[in-house]
Amino acid sequence: MIAGAVRRNVGAALALAASFAFAASAASAGQEEPPVAVDNAALFARWQAAQKLHAAGKLDEARAEMAAILAADPRNLELALAMTRWLAEVRDDFATALPFARRAAELGAAKADAINLVGSVLTMGGAAAESERVFAAGAEKFPADFLLWFGLGVARGQQKKYLEAKVAFAEALRLAPENGLVLFSAGENFTNLRDYEAAERAFLLAVKLKGHDDASWRLGQVLALQGKHEAAEKVLTPALTQGGKAARFQAALQLGMLWVERDRAAEALPLLTQATEERPTSREAWRWLARAQRALGRPEVATRSMKRYAELRADEDRIEEEHLLSLIRAQLQGGAASGGSGGGSGSGSGGGE
Amino acid sequence: MAPALPALLPLLLLALPPRAAGAVAQDGAAPITLVDEAAARGVTALLHCGDPVKRRYLLECIGCGCALFDKDGDGDLDLFLVDAGTIGPPPDLPEGADPLAVDWKPRKDGQCRLYENDGAGRFRDVTEASGAGIRVFGQGVTAADYDGDGDLDLYVTCWGPNRLLQNDGSGRFTDVTRGTGVGDPHWSVGAAFFDADGDDDLDLYVGNYLAMAIARDPDCWRKVDCPFLDVPAACGPKGMVPETDSFFRNKGDGDFRDMSEKAGIHDHEPRYALGVVAFDHDQDGDVDVYVGNDSRANSLWDNDGKGRFFDLGDLSGAAVNRDGVAQASMGVACGDLDGDGLFDLAVTNFSHDDNTVYRNEGGGNFADITARHPFGSKAYLSLGWGTEFVDFDGDGALDLFVANGHVYPEADVRAPELSWKQQNRVYQQVNGILRDVTDTAGSGLQRKASFRGAAFGDVDGDRDVDVVVMAMDEPPALLINQGDGRDALLLELRQPTGMNRFAIGARAVATVGGKRLARQVRAGGSFASMSDLRLHFGLGGAPRIDRLEVTWPDGTRQEFGDVAGGRTARLVKGGAIETVAAPSAPSASDAGGGR
After folding, report:
1. N or C: lower Cβ tally within 10 Å for chain B?
2. ipTM of the complex, rounded to two decimals
């Protein structure tokens, strides 16, 4: 159950990642490599060297050197911000960016774009609670900045605070009603709140505004969930050939599911077969393919498909189990069990895709 | 630049008020009113499951079930409440001690309670004299006549060996676990009696959860403070050692043999079982088993008619939700929601998740139709346990009840979205849609507690469905239905001979004004609980049932035309339907309190 929400949050997180481009273009247009505001030439040289190490894939060395640079000038906000920005925007390395973002937050990043950067990196780095605090303070300071409200919504959504996220997204939409990305994320949040009618409306506008690559198949999905089968088919059919590969895969899977449920297994079969070929690690593609095969009276091939599905599910269960056990072992050895909010204990995740 | 209207639309849409709960009046459905009359009717037991101050282990979080059953054959429903007490500290393990040489045991400071019904729904605690007041770490209960002597016995699931309590017919019980072979030593929760192999006697399926035993998991007692939304809480179920379910075949003389392996139950990996219901999913005449598993795919054990099972869950669509997510399932409801004669399922799940409704599409296929019912965010944020499809308003269409309460007391730190104590919720079926009418369905639903198991049945003899709901560290709720059951038929099915006198597994389909109402006699279901064995047919104002078809467990059929409602009746196999209680004024139910 938790996993279902987490899975959907991935969409919002990806949306946030896309928002970096938006934020970057707004804040630092034309800057391929953000400047490092250090007056120490030696430090600047070290920074350039660390960047080269990172670009060369020597991540451990790069991280160590970057940490050393920051330690050499621990009160330098611009340095922390520049390192955060470069790692996040240029290198897409949120894990390494996280401590620098934290430092920037501690040093009191004051400009709206800096707050957005720090908050976004915290979210992408899995520190959603910290991110929420950063965005909440930023939104209070810059109440007219829709990106800060948007980031606040995403951070709250990551923590499953969907009711509070709804408030933040609503404010972001009040400030930027034509922003398709915000609409898409608001739609994700409405889905998490099981308000499918509102989600449908938000996704519909997100599709029109080209807010996110996943908007079309998500719209088709919520239509199907509500039993609006014809409308779902109308949305999903063109989505088969639109957008990126991942979005097209999802559209095929959703349409295949819809057709299996509508006793149209013969039509679903080629779609789902293709889906398993495109993404052989998608257990859901295998499961729905098996259901289509079974509906068509092919129990032997259905059994084979189910076997593949079961193997994939077992792999996912094992990975999650090992993660949990590693947390428990760490605790048994004296450290606090930590890491990951939400799915760790209790009844939890099953793992969507 | 986008056109002005689309730009404004999201603001307008977001500003719309949420759909009002309880669209009952405007849809013309009769209101549902449930009033908690537990104290007024004498049900005051304070029951515990674990340390109420700090629940360190999942063992202390799961809670207990209850049973509504007729212990003494006087025609009314008596009440058995399961108690767990506390677990005490883990065993003292001096350095160098073999942890397998000791094990962890309950304190036995709790005691299961038995209440006797006076026929009008007033209860008297008869625990001490009944012999049913066992001191175990109890979890769930089911009731059936396992020995074919014509009375209902009790099977109590526990952390530690389960207990079989034999009824002498008068409501006095003797623990006969030793020697009958059903003292399953695992941590068991849900259980169901049914005739798996068509030999007329009642077999037993037991859902087992996880190993909280040092002998099975030497580190289990050290697994504490796992992160739940960044807050330390009890660990599990993932990260703990799951247990395999058990299947016990009745040898025909009241003794059982563990046939789990031969029956196929061991063919798939253990899955943290909680809710168990036995029903015929494919109308092939035998009884199958559906198991709600916590954080693992649910199981649909398809019976080959000889007591050999194959898990059809994944292929059927009833194992995971539509997204393919294995949910953390707790309780299971089973009933013909849409009147097509096939039994549908509802599964209660963890917070931040749906309670999933699976429509039985026939042929062993189920479709997740949850989103077609406007359950909304309140259901999504609640954590569900006991549940059943019941006809609260007597219109013939099944409604849905869900008992709620969080697993972790630590949920309170996330208020307002989450809380340890939650409201139970009622979803009324109107025009085929289940709508949340909790806010208008009586004061009994406004109480917040950490509710768990729920049992359903006509407690006060007015032929509508009342509910008992267990609560953690509080007395249970006894929700008396204030509705009008005057035209309903409450039908008791009996077999005159053999080992299955209460006709567990029998099925009856009533045709009323073109609608078909299918019901099945079941021993087990909901969450760890046992409900009224009598079949309830609300006739929606019609005076009679046009046609009633009864299919007995052996496949024998009987048909009746023009069956009068407004009564409690008994049908003994091969005989005629006989009234056992004359129509009475519905107000007789109101003994305990106002509306």
Report:
1. N
2. 0.82
